[in-house]
């Protein structure tokens, strides 16, 4: 798409003519949408700063939001899984069981928003 088409798509989303905007990392920074309630990521970015900006499109100004990341285990580097779990734990966000299942053996996560148990303690990893 050319820039005019991208600008038109963003404007249609802003004007609530469409409910879904599909975008690349180009939209991770610099665009502000007041009403975004859910961001869906397909895959993880190479840079977790971009991930934070991606999911930061939702839940602004005291509103709740949700971010869903779709991963294909075979295409994700193990260190990305550990980094994502660390990011969530450090942000006091729940670490989904599906993500925990992808952590390397022996990795332990601490998260105040989840009960401690088999995964209580500090994140460590192989």
Lateral strand order in the biggest sheet: 1-2
Shape by Cα distribution: elongated
As residue ranges, the low-confidence spans are 112-126
**Separate helix tally:** 4
Radius of gyration, Cα only, in angstroms?
Answer: 17 Å
Number of strands: 2
CATH fold call of the largest domain? Rossmann fold
The helix-and-strand class reads alpha+beta
Determine the CATH superfamily of the largest domain: P-loop containing nucleotide triphosphate hydrolases
Helical content stands at: 25-40%
CATH C-level category of the largest domain: Alpha Beta
Largest sheet: 2 strands, parallel
What amount of the residues lies in strands?
A: 5-15%
Protein name: Helicase C-terminal domain-containing protein
InterPro entries: Helicase_C-like (IPR001650), P-loop_NTPase (IPR027417)
Domain Helicase C-terminal: 1-103
How would you describe this structure to a colleague?
The chain is an alpha+beta fold and 126 residues long. The chain has two domains: 3-70, P-loop containing nucleotide triphosphate hydrolases (Rossmann fold), CATH 3.40.50; 74-126, no CATH class. The chain is 29% helix and 8% strand. The protein contains four helices and two strands, in the order αβαβαα. It has helices at 3-14, 48-55, 78-90, 97-100, and strands spanning 38-42, 66-70. Strands 1-2 form a two-stranded parallel sheet. β1 (38-42), α2 (48-55) and β2 form a beta-alpha-beta unit. The model is unreliable at 112-126 (pLDDT under 50). InterPro entries: Helicase_C-like, P-loop_NTPase. This is Helicase C-terminal domain-containing protein. Residues 1-103 form the Helicase C-terminal domain.
């Amino acid at each position: 798409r050319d820039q005019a088409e991208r600008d038109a798509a963003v404007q249609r989303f802003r004007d609530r003519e469409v409910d879904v905007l599909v975008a690349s990392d180009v939209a991770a920074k610099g665009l502000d949408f007041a009403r975004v309630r859910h961001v869906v990521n397909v895959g993880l970015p190479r840079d977790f700063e971009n991930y934070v900006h991606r999911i930061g499109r939702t839940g602004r100004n005291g509103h709740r939001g949700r971010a869903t990341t779709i991963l294909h285990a075979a295409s994700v580097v193990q260190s990305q899984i550990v980094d994502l779990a660390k990011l969530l734990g450090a942000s006091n966000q729940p670490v989904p069981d599906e993500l925990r299942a992808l952590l390397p053996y022996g990795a332990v996560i601490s998260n105040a928003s989840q009960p401690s148990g088999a995964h209580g303690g500090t994140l460590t990893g192989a």
